Amino acid sequence: MSHDNLPVKDPELGHPVPNPGLEEHVERYTDVDKGAGDRAYRTILMMLGAVPVLAILFVVIYFAVPRDAYIDFGILQANAMNLGFGLTGGLAVLLIGLAVVQWARVIMGDEESVEIRHAASSSEEERAAVLEEFDAGVEQSGVRRRKLLLGAAGGGLGISLVPAVVLFADMGPHPTAAVRAETIERTIWEEGILLVNDVTWEPLRPEALEVGQLVNAQPANLNDFHGAELQVEKAKASIIVVRMDPNSIKIPQSRADWHVGGILAYSKICTHVGCPISLWERQTHHLLCPCHQSTFDLGNSGVVVFGPAARALPQLPIRVNADGYLVAQSDFTVPVGPSFFERDSSQDFQDGDQ
């Protein structure tokens, strides 16, 4: 064997370091003990045999389990169908992986071998031979004599991707004005919905709030939703409720009846990129977003006083109901959350608006 391409440091082999050789081969336990080998073999068969059963259960779950069924785990909920898919599909993949690994460890051959590494680059003769074989293959394919074959094949393969591209539509509806009005431009707040503490879930009463206090709150009807739908509605409907001295804040005439004795409710979702906000500066009445430091003046209709946010924090009109609890007068009058280029910003509140 030639070693012309290797750096000559070993006078015998021409390798950079002396050849350490192979260590003495040690037989595996499953090779020495036939019973152990048979047990490992049966274990692998059982793991692989369980995979078809799990695959069938996966299909049964798809057709038998309702899509709106949920399983409670204390304070957490899981969609029953998705949980079943995860358990059956995940366990099947896990068993295949374990079986293959165990197969390689205890069943496949366990003999070591050594192969001298050749030079990284091919020789001129080898490259010429490969090009010659490639030209022969092209000639044999007939595309030089029947030139439409390649175009037809390319067109067929290309058009076959169209169904896959169409499936991207399943990622969500096209954001038309009607779709936006029913999704990202609305929340579940409406006339008479109670404001409840998002930790204790207790309805809020005006006398329970101190001047300078901030409370994270949710609409009471959020409990009507489950799973992913609950998270979507919570992401839009979350609010903060603050109480300030009415004499220290600016209440525009257009929002004179939106508060209760200096108690105001604002969206908790930053209008920059949608981070939740609750960093409250009691003395300045400023609310700071922790993500990019957008700052809103809750004492002046939630207008932006610092940072990259481009519009005021939406305010929720509130009142007190006959039982003495804080409730919403309506939904937000403008979309909550981060801005998007399709929305109408003409109704956004600006400093000085009445």
What does this structure look like?
- The chain has 354 residues and is of the alpha+beta class.
- Among the domains are: 29-106, no CATH class; 180-328, Rieske [2Fe-2S] iron-sulphur domain (Rieske Iron-sulfur Protein).
- 32% of the residues lie in helices and 14% in strands.
- The protein contains eight helices and 13 strands.
- A five-stranded antiparallel sheet has the order 3-4-5-6-11.
- The chain is elongated and about 90 Å long.
- It starts with 28 loop residues before the first helix and ends in a 26-residue tail after the last strand.
Q: What structural keywords apply?
A:
354 residues, alpha+beta, Rieske Iron-sulfur Protein, 5-stranded antiparallel sheet, 4-stranded antiparallel sheet, 13 strands, 32% helix, 14% strand, elongated, disordered N terminus
Strand segment count: 13
CATH architecture of the domain at 180-328: 3-layer Sandwich
Strand content: 5-15%
* Main beta-sheet strand count, sense and barrel state: 5 strands, antiparallel
SS content category: alpha+beta
What's the arrangement of secondary structure elements?
Blueprint: H1 29-32, H2 34-64, E1 70-73, E2 76-79, H3 80-106, H4 124-141, H5 148-159, H6 162-166, H7 177-182, E3 195-197, E4 214-219, H8 227-237, E5 239-243, E6 263-267, E7 279-281, E8 286-288, E9 295-297, E10 303-306, E11 315-316, E12 318-320, E13 326-328
Antiparallel strand pairs: 1-2, 3-4, 4-5, 5-6, 6-11, 7-8, 8-9, 9-10, 12-13
